[in-house]
Amino acid sequence: MNTDVDAWLPLSPAALHILLALVGEDRHGYGITKEIERQSDGRYKLGPGTLYDNLHKLLEDGIVEECKGIAETSRRRYYHLTAFGRGLLSAEVSRLDKLLRQAKVHLKPANSRI
Q1: H/E element holding 65?
Q2: What percentage of the chain reaches a pLDDT higher than 70?
Q3: Which of 42, 57, 59, 61 is 20 to 30 Å from the Cα of 86, by its Cα?
């Protein structure tokens, strides 16, 4: 696995939303979709195919792991971020923050002409 965080950026919107849904607590698939809807005020919705395709890739890449203890007591599979996944999410949030700051700088003069 490539552990160079910058090589993974930018994240796709679906991957970013999944990681954001998992940053606060472990969740199962349906819980992830509901948290994504809550965080985006219903503007971003993942269908089951998109969710599980992305989860499968995130699992393969070591960004997300299946929770072992919870899976044994529940029929649902629960997922959580790995340490690498947390670092990756942090790097993506930082990248997006810099992008937004640049956009605000460039948009400020345009807004003052309105």
Answers
A1: strand 64-66
A2: 89
A3: 42
